[in-house]
Amino acid sequence: MSTDTESQSTEVESGTETETESDWETTESESESPRVPCLRNWLELPRDVTASILLKLGAIEIIESAQKVCTLWRNICKDPSMWRFIDMQNTGDRDMPYCLEKMCRHAIDRSSGGLVAINIEYFGTDDLLAYIAERASQLRRLQLATCYDISDEGLNEAASKLPLLEEFEIYVGSTSKDAIEAVGRCCPLLKTLKYNQQGIRDVFFRDDEEALAIAQNMRG
Q1: What secondary structure, in 3-state letters, does the chain show?
Q2: Where is this region: Disordered (predicted)?
């Protein structure tokens, strides 16, 4: 009699244990189900972090794209601190749907006089240089690339209004040694002067005059 009772008890306990294990055991299909990625809201980023990210973009990308994303980004893009460095890098495509010089002037205005460095490619003119000189007296670095519409006279006039200029770079243009000499005389703090005409002149042409002008007018 007692033997039957013990047998029934064992069966009940065994059944209970089996049911308990099935409660926490997961099936193979459940363990392999994909996890949903955690999505982050970019608008929740701290303002300074967002600004640092946007600063990685060029001026054209900011004005034509980034500032149009949302109100927050537009407000950040209008902050003068975003325009201490203006990079107008572009492909030189004449069929662009916007005026680069007008866009550049707009970027300069946003700097509110705090512009420190600017890079202009393909569209520089005497008028634009004059605009920069009048509104960016704190400019430290000026880079001009393939700006054939900038004359010696225009460059000389701008240089005379940029006494704090420390770096000046010209890549492919119509600047002569006279203009280079003028820049050296007008900018007493100039530390770097790069002049590169490679790619548009005969391979046997040597820029001896320009090199001599740089050597004679670099202070220190």
Answers
A1: CHHHHHHHHHHHHHHHHHHHHHHHCCCHHHHCCCCCCCCCCHHHCCHHHHHHHHCCCCHHHHHHCHHHCCHHHHHHHCCHHHHCEEEECCCCCCCCCCCHHHHHHHHHHHCCCCCCEEEEECCCEHHHHHHHHHHCCCCCEEEEEEECECCHHHHHHHHCCCCCCCEEEEEEECCCHHHHHHHHHHCCCCCEEEEECCCCCCCCCCCHHHHHHHHHHCCC
A2: 1-33
